[in-house]
Each structure stands twice: as structure tokens, then as C-alpha cells.
Amino acid sequence: MDSLFESTLRTSLLNGANATFLAELYERYLDDPDSVDAGWRTFFEELRDAPEAVRAERQGPSWTRHTSQVIGAADPDAPPPDKGKGKAGDAAALSDDAARARTLDSIRALMMIRAYRVRGHLEANLDPLGLTEPEPHPELDYRSYGFTEADLDREIFIDNVLGLETATLRDINKVVRETYCGHIGVEFMHIQYPDQKAWVQKRVESELNRTAFTDLGRRTIMERIIEAETFERFLHKKYPGTKRFGLEGGESIIPAIEQILKRGSQLDLDSVVFGMAHRGRLNVLSNVMHKPLEAIFSEFQGQSSNPEDVQGSGDVKYHLGTSADRQFDGKTVHVTLNANPSHLEAVNPVVLGKVRAKQAQIGDTERRRVLGVLIHGDAAMAGQGVVAECFALAHLTGYRTGGTIHLVINNQIGFTTSPQYSRSGQYCTDIAKVIQAPILHVNGDNPEAVVHAARVAVEFRQEFGTDVVLDIVCYRRQGHNEADEPAFTQPRMYAHIARHPSTVETYGRYLVDNGLMEQRVLDDLHAATVARMEAAFAASGGYRPNRADWLLGTWEGLEAAFGEEEYKQYATAAKPHALAEVFKAISTTPETFDVNPKIARQLKAKAAMHESGEGIDWATAEALAFGTLLLDGHAVRLSGQDCGRGTFSQRHAVLVDQTSEARYRPLNNIRDGQATFEALDSPLSEFAVLGFEYGYAAQDPMALVLWEAQFGDFANGAQVIFDQFISASEYKWLRMSGLVVLLPHGYEGQGPEHSSARPERFLQLCAEDNLVVCNLTTPANYFHALRRQLRRNFRKPMVLFSPKSLLRHKLCVSAVADFQDGSRFRRVLGETDDLVPDDEVRRVVLCTGKVYYDLLQARRERNIRDVALVRVEQLYPWPRDGVQRELKRYPRATVIWCQEEPANMGAWTFVDRRLHYALEDLQHAERQAHYAGRSASASPATGTARVHQQEQNTLVDQALTWDVDDLPRPFSRATGLSAVT
Predict the structure, then answer these.
(1) Which of 455, 595, 856, 970 has its CA at 20 to 30 Å from residue 322's CA atom?
(2) For residue 71, with 0-12 CB atoms within 10 Å meaning exposed, 13-18 middle and 19 or more buried, which class applies?
(3) Which CATH number do you get for residue 144?
(4) CA 501: distance to chain centroid?
(5) Directed axis angle between helix 385-393 and helix 687-699, to 10°?
(6) Which residues, in sequence order, are bridge partners of residue 337?
(7) CB distance 702 to 736 below 8 Å
(8) In this protein, which residues make up the domain named Transketolase-like pyrimidine-binding (predicted)?
(9) Domain with 865 in it: what CATH number?
(10) If DSSP codes are grouped into helix, strand and coil, which group holds residue 332?
């Protein structure tokens, strides 16, 4: 019920006439639920507990279920606590007025109970520092429902809600406050799925704050938080002032993670992928991932985390990841902590993609065996848009992972910003309500409550396959980092923190004071932990990593590759029979399929291409590449906005029946036993979807994984993934990826936002053979470039500036022979027309991509035979020898670089010096290349079609006919920049 309706009902309960009507209505409902309106029936059902369909599933005493499955829980057969059950009064002996009064009491009590289910978390004791006292909420006050203090000890019939048939108002109030306003606050009434809501309600009201832990369970929890706290204090002592982004104040997250792994292992989990930013990462690496302490200490001493024979830049220690096998009661769980940059939350979609790929690799179609766990900071979860983008993926067919567990290390601050300045909602977790995830808020100073809430979280995820959030409210003892002074901006908070005992002290005092553990045992646990760390510290000076794990597991057999890329050729051609099979699949549909007439014509055209062996266009070449890889056993996954059809209606990888709207994917129907093809229309997200596909490709090197932007500049929204993961992961973290990024690019007068994919940005990222960057001009070269991704024995991401107008350009076609034996990928394409002898060519124009066809068409129309055109198909790794070989053919020619993009964009600033060095090496008559193209500009392109065409005509004229002295000097002093030519 919404709050307005509830407020109206409360008013009715305080009004005599309305109360009488409500009582009569409730009596009718009790006699015959179908006799009242459906809205009232739903309301009364919710008051009494849950819809009947769910109530039936919940029979049996709740205390007999699940308690043995928490770390250290007591005997599950133990009797339930005394709930003071009573018997209902003899209603038949009551007068009508008395019966109606009792009915009203029931309704009032049930409404109050429901209010606690909805809003009890608002008065929960969540802040370990006690800085924010919960404000009383009127809906949680029994007086709001017409009760007075005189009613506190009167028995009220509540029909087994809360497990009680009758109870006094005092007892009801006590139970709901203990349940919903203790150290755990639960938000779940926003969930619209009755079974999920009933499950949470049952688990909360039966046992959430009443779990009994065994001595072994408490000892285990104590060991975990002692290890966590001692680790941080040890580092603080040995390396004072060194940045480590410690976990102090949030140590309870370590036993929470352990509980997720242990309970998850009992519920079919085999593998868990973690993603987190830097706060607490070293602690998780040590105490969850079991990374050797010697390795961690050696990194603090400035030693590399990589073996000596592995190249790479490495990264700061609190960004690194690792993997390990953990044992729980004889069950092995493989755990992975993904490396992450300082861009908070950027790792989230990467983890989701890796989880999805792992599930595909092991055939986990129920998505119960592989789990993603994301550990958030409170300010980052509320502030970073990628969090919302990832929640948007949670229930989508092509991206769902069976639910993610979100753990929030809620420090109640973001660097120096307090919550009231960093978010508009009540909680940092409010964004999770968009997918109706249950949210458990828990006081981090109560480790038992934290551990129990973690168990509830993993059980919910395994039961329903959807996300769940655990918000551990704690604090940050050291400030943003260990060199920071937090009292500059939060003096009151840090005065409290200075006086506040640690979680180890608080929990230890509780155990000792209640006779649950001896102080001697606590002292021994601490001493043993310190001794272990001292031994590791002593051994850390001589520690050297003996191997890297980056080419193990699914990467076994692949190699690292650095340098000399141009000299490697790969067998990317396809066999004629494989091409024929793919052609047949992409040119036919089932007889009963009602294909769109326009598409039917396209299918006939594809069949004609195969018969003639000529005229294969871009989309057909792509389908041939996908199809032949599928026949080779490689899965193909294509994701992006509208990529099934293609932004430019060119692909049609997913056909839609015009009558039933059923989907048909021709590439999944080539032959039995082939690999799987996915073409997924993604949500309108770039950051999360690109991150997801990067994570998928990083996990599965044997699949061709592609992300396609709707227009190339849409990649702007995912720049963090390009900068931090795609371009640098191999060198920072020893993690390769074969992801292909398709960015439609080309100047056709469509304005600033639909012209340029910003090639200059990607070229600026290129170094040490980290990327492949291509701007291709033939369908056959596209075919070979895609197949090359999986045919070589290493993996590199490829950024490919894909065409728009060339998709249907009559000259942009290839012959079948260009796909078969004897064909391969061409990094540089030389002149193809019949020109004057090479030594009589007066000008050679180098270019890349679509502008080649503008130049070719103009040259042919003007019958120019002394200007050669050379296409640089692969811009990076720069094909030095291929370019020099073509330039050497024309020793007397002036060398021009022509591009469509403004001079400060595109490839010019990247190729200028490289062409200069090539010409010097050749001792060419020209020692520099000249520029033909648009002048430097703040905007990528004009928004006026007429101006665009004038600019395009001019740059073609410049390249083909202008005197060198008249060519533009794009970075002359007139533009405020120093000249480079």
C-alpha cells in the first residue's frame, strides 16, 4: 500500500464511523475473502502476512530451517524461544460492539506491524559511532493507530503474524522493534514479487536477530576480525604514512565475505569473482584471497609484483588482483579478485562480464555456480553512474548473471564529503531499488549481525537468482589515505573515532563479559597472528614471484606478444566449402518464416554474390567471418545498441517474423555442432556494456567478442574503459583481451556528433603493441582482420573504425577469391589502377578509410594518372616496412597525407613523424609529408551539409592537384600553435 493510502487508513482508525466501517469490512473478509473488493483483499492479505499462494509454502516452524548453515550456528533442532503464545478469546461470547472493538485492535496492530516492515529500518541502530540518532517516525508509534498506554497489556489477536496467535501490544511492539530496529535494518517491501518478499519477511521475522552462534562460530569470527585488524596495524607500524587505503573500522567485511564463500559452497557455488576499489583491497588480498604476506610486504618495499621475465609497467599494490582456490568443508571454491584502477566502480561491469563468460564456459545455465561480488564504497555507489548502468543489466537476457551480491563498506563519508552533500536519498544504496533488490543495512560493530546478514544475502541470491545488497555501516579510522588529516573537514566525526574502540575490542569485550570466551584465548589469537606476520616480514626481502598466472587456465597455450608484429602472417583464409555453408545459411530462412520483403531481396542478393563470386559487401564479409569462426568452434558474441539489425540497417543478424515477431538468427543455423552466435541489442549504455564485453573477452580468449557503438563518438561515454582497461590492462596487470570495438566513422555531412569516432584518442593510447587500430577499406580485409583475432597465438584488443556510406558503396566490394586460400590480411594496400610508370608519379597520397574512395572517384573522373593512392589499413601497430615499401616505389613523388578529420584530430599528428622517419630512411627526395585536409577545429565537423561538401571537395583538390606551397599549414602561428611542417 502506498503511504497516502496508509495515512488515510490510520485516519479512519481514529475516526469512529470510519473505524466501524473498516471493522465490518474486515469481518466480511475473514468470513469470505472474495466478498470484498480485490484492492481491500490484497491489503488484508498483506496485513495478515502474505498472499495465500505464498503462505502455503511457508508451513512448518521457521526455527527448524537454515540455522545450522551459518558459521557457528547453534543446533537447528533446538526449541524456539518462548513467544508467549496465547489462545484467541471466545468470540461467540462477545457482544457485537466488543467483537468489533477486537477486530479494530487486530487491524490496528497489523497495520503497525506492516509499518515496521516498511519503515523499521529508519529507526534501526546502524551507526557504530552513534553520530546520527534515528529520528522517531510517526508510523512506528503505536499511538498513530489509535492505541494508548492503557492498551499496552491488552491481548490482541494477530492471526499468527510474527508467529504469534495473540500477544499484548507491549509484546508486539517489543518483537517488531527487536526485529526491524536493532543492529540490522531491512528494506524489502518495495519488492513486487510476492515470493521474494515473503521469503525475506519470513527470514527476518523468524530469526534474523536471534541467531545463536556456537563457541566455534564465535571463535572463527573473532579470528577473522583479529587477522583483519592486526594486518592493518602491522602495515601502519612497518610502513608509517604509506598509502594503503586500509580497512580499519570496516573489519567485519572479512568474516562477511568468508560467510558468503562458505554458505555459497553449500549452495552449489564453484567460483566467485570479486570486484572492488582500493579501500580494504590489501586486506581482502591477504585474508580472503590468501595472497602470501611475503608478496605484499615485498611490494611495500618497492619490489615488482611480476616475475622478472615478464614485461609490463605493473601497478600500485592496492590496484592489483589475484586468484586462489579456497576450501570449505571439503568443497573447493575458486576466488578471483579483479584488478581495478582508481576509477571507483569502473570494475563493476568487467566483473559482470567475466561472471557471464565463466558461466558460459562451464555450461552454468542456471547461473548458480558462478557468483559476482561487488564491494562498493558508500559515496561511490551513490555517485558513480556506472553503478546504475550495471543494475540496468541485471535482468536482461544477454547480460544477466543470476544475481550479484553488493557489499558496501559504508564509511559514512566520501574523501572529505559528508553524506548530506554527496547524495539526495536516504541511503547510498537507494539505487538498488530500481531492480527491487532487497537491502540489508547492518551495524559493522556487530560482527555476528554482519555474518548473519551475509548468509541471508547469499541464500537469497541462490534462491531467486537476483541481486541483493548488504550495506555494512562502519567508519574510516585513518582518513581517505594514511597520509591524510581527516579532522580538517570532519573534526566531530574523527574526535569520536579517536575515542571509539575497535571492532576487535568491542566484540572481544562482549565475548569475555558474557562468559563466551576467555581473555587468554583472545590474547593467544592476537599473538599468533602477529608472530605469523613478523615471520613473513622477515622473509619478504628475498621474496620473488616465481610465475605469472596470466597464461594459465583458459589462457593455456597462448603467448605474450611484444614487437615485430608486422612480420607475422596468420592463416585467416577460409575453405570454399565453409564459405558455401555460411552463404547458404545467411541467404535462406525457414519456409514458415514470414520474412520482410526488403530483407528477402537482400537475401537473394547474398545468394547471387556466392554464385557470381563477386560484389561481396561489408555486411556479408562480416557474416562470413562470423560464420566461419563458428564452424571452427569459436563462439561469437556481438553486443551494442541496435546491433542485431545494425545502425544502418546493414547487418540483419537477427531476422524478425513479420507476423509473429519471432526471432531467427541465420548464423546459429549453419550446421549441427557449430559454436553459438549471439547478437544482443544492448541498453542505451556505453560504459557498462563495453566494460561487460571487455570482462567477457578477458575471461574467454577463444570467443570473438565485439562491442559496436551506434555511432563512433558514442565511445565517449565509455572512455574510462578504454583508458584504464582495454589499452593498459596487459601492461599494468598482465591481463590480455581480444575484444573488438566497432566504431562507425566517416564524414558524410551528418554533423559533429555523427562523423568522427575520434581516432586521435585511440592512437594516442597506442604504445608497446598494446592495441590494434584499423580503418579498413575492403570487405575482405575486414573479414581477415576479424578472423586474425582468434587465429594468432596471442590476444590484443582491436579498435576498428567501421564505415557508414561504404556499407553500400559500389566500389567497396570484394571477390570470393579474396576470402579463400592465398588471401590474408593486408596492413597496407598499394595502388590498384593503371598509372604512369612509378618513377614518373609526381605525387603519392597516403590515406586511411573512407576518404580513399572520394580520392579514387575524383582521380578517375579527372583522368589523373600521375597521382598514386596508398591506403594504410592498420594504423597501429604502425606498418613501417609496408609503408616504406610503397613509398620506395615512387622516388620522385611528393608525399601527401590526406584525411577527412580536422588537422588536430584523425591520424595526422600520429603519422606525421612516422612518415618523416620513413622518408629519411629511404633518402627520399622529399624528407617530409604534407597535409591535405580540414583545418584544425574545436568541433569534429560542421553541422551544415553545404559547408561539409565544400570542405570535402577542397580536401580532395588539395590532395590531388594543389601545389605544395599552397597546401594548408594547419598548426602555423596563425592558429596559436607552433608549426610542425
Answers:
(1) 455
(2) buried
(3) 1.10.287.1150
(4) 36
(5) 60
(6) 274, 322
(7) no
(8) 616-809
(9) 3.40.50.11610
(10) strand
Collect all residues with Cβ–Cβ distance below 8 Å to 890 and sequence separation of at least 6. 838, 839, 841, 844, 868
Q: Tell me: do 660 and 804 sit in the same domain.
A: yes
| Percent with pLDDT over 90 in the chain | 71
650 in Cβ contact with 618 (< 8 Å): yes
pLDDT tens digits along 526-569: 999 999 999 999 998 888 876 666 677 888 888 887 766 777 88
Say what the alpha-carbon torsion angle 740, 746, 750, 754 is, to the nearest 10 degrees: 30
Q: HSE, CB side, 13 Å, CA atoms: give it for residue 5.
A: 7
Shared domain for 789 and 846, answered yes or no, is no
Query: Does the residue 559 lie in any domain?
Result: no
Taking each helix axis as running N to C, give the angle between helix 618-631 and helix 576-587, from 0 to 180 degrees, rounded to the nearest 10. 120
More confident call, 39 vs 719: 719
175 with 246, same domain: the answer is no
Contact 676, 653 (CB under 8 A): no
In a domain, 69, yes or no: no
DSSP state of 665: -
pTM of the model as a whole: 0.91
Task: Assess if residue 811 is contained within a domain.
Answer: yes
Residue by residue, DSSP assigns 934-970 as EPP-SSSS-S-HHHHHHHHHHHHHHHHT--GGGS--T
- What local confidence, expressed as pLDDT, does residue 33 receive? 84
Average pLDDT, the chain: 89
Nearest to 379 by CA among 426, 430, 415: 415
At 284, phi and psi to the nearest 5? -65, -40
Q: Please report, for residues 62, 402, 525, 633, 699, the alpha-carbon distance to residue 361 in angstroms, rounded to integers and kept in the order given.
A: 38, 15, 42, 13, 9
Q: Which triple of cell numbers denotes residue 664?
A: 531467427
961 shares its domain with 928: yes
The CA distance from 595 to 603, in Å, is 10
| Residue ranges making up the domain that contains 852 | 828-975
Query: Whole-angstrom Cα distance, residue 754 to residue 49?
Result: 55
Strands of 558-654, DSSP E: 636-640
**Domain shared by 833 and 855, yes or no:** yes
Residue 748 grid coordinates: 558524410
Same domain assignment for residues 815 and 870: no
CA–CA separation, 609 vs 618, rounded Å?
12
Domain boundary among 182, 206, 232: 182
Q: Please give the C-alpha separations between residue 607 and each of 530, 584, 599, 666, 677, in angstroms, as whole numbers.
A: 74, 7, 13, 14, 21
Predicted local distance difference test score (pLDDT) of residue 243 = 83
- Take residue 189 and report the three cell numbers written for it: 517491501
Sign for the pseudo-dihedral over CA of 705, 707, 712, 714: negative
Closest CA to 409 of 342, 324, 474: 474
- Helices and strands (DSSP H and E) totals, the chain: 31, 24
Which residues, in sequence order, are CB contacts of 757 under 8 Å at separation 6+? 709, 711, 712, 713, 715, 743, 744, 745, 801
Q: Residue written as cell 594548408?
A: 968
- Reported as a pLDDT band with limits 50, 70 and 90, residue 5 is low
Q: Is the pLDDT at 332 greater than 90, yes or no?
A: yes
Residues 6 or more apart whose CB falls under 8 angstroms from that of 505 comprise none
Q: What pLDDT, on a 0 to 100 scale, did the predictor assign at position 746?
A: 95
Q: What is the CATH number of the domain that holds 799?
A: 3.40.50.12470
Phi, psi of 369 (to 5 degrees): -95, -20
Specify which residues 468 forms β-bridges with: 405
Q: Are residues 833 and 815 in the same domain?
A: no
pLDDT at 924 over 90: no
889 and 740 housed in the same domain = no
265 belongs to a structural domain = yes
Confidence grade of residue 83 (pLDDT, cut at 50, 70, 90): very low
Question: Count of CB atoms within 10 A of residue 20's CB?
Answer: 16
